[in-house]
Amino acid sequence: MEAYQQAFGLRIRQLRDQQGYTQEELAHRARIHVTYLSGIERGVRNPSLRSIRALARALGVRVGKLFAFEWPPPSSGSR
Description:
With 79 residues, the chain is mainly α. 62% of the residues lie in helices and 0% in strands. It contains five helices and no strands. Helix 1 crosses helix 3, helix 2 packs across helix 3 (34-42) and helix 2 (23-30) crosses helix 4. The chain starts with a helix and ends in a 13-residue tail after the last helix. The mean pLDDT is 91.
């Protein structure tokens, strides 16, 4: 699993939790499958630009805010 994908997924989950959305609700709003969203949040999926834009819109944030996460992630060491 790529550390960058994992950090991105954690950021999506943080923003989803802040909005109070379930995975199902966010997936519906973004028009993506819930298992795909789950994979993004777990860092095992590499989302397309189209999916990233859809997630940003569904969360009501600019795309850049999805990438506003700590790097490297605390658990990944110094990669």
